[in-house]
Design brief:
Length: 101
């Protein structure tokens, strides 16, 4: 009888205070407790790339320009699995005060 309104993913994840280059700590999973810098942020899907975290192995075929073999690269993580990390302390992202330069 009543229709539910569909929540668009872009409505949910556009208002994060995390930015590219911020230091974060992983909250859950195999890499819990590790820290790294945010390399890329996909706001539409709510996922981030963290340097050195969630490494995936990819096989590439040898070509004339590149060497083939196994290569490791970072995989996407949900934003909910990370927390802002400032001066060796975990901080809630809504409590961050940024200084404008």
């Amino acid at each position: 009888m009543f229709r539910r309104r569909k929540i668009k993913s872009k409505d949910v994840f556009t208002k994060h205070s995390l930015k590219t280059g911020d230091e974060v700590v992983i909250l859950s999973g195999d890499e819990k407790g590790k820290t790294g810098k945010i390399m890329d942020f996909n706001r539409k899907n709510g996922k981030i790339l963290v340097q050195g975290i969630n490494l995936l192995t990819h096989f590439s075929k040898k070509s004339e320009t590149e060497e083939g073999g196994l290569q490791k690269k970072e995989g996407w993580l949900p934003v909910s699995k990370v927390m802002f990390y400032l001066d060796g302390k975990k901080c809630r992202s809504d409590k961050i005060k940024r200084e404008e330069k």
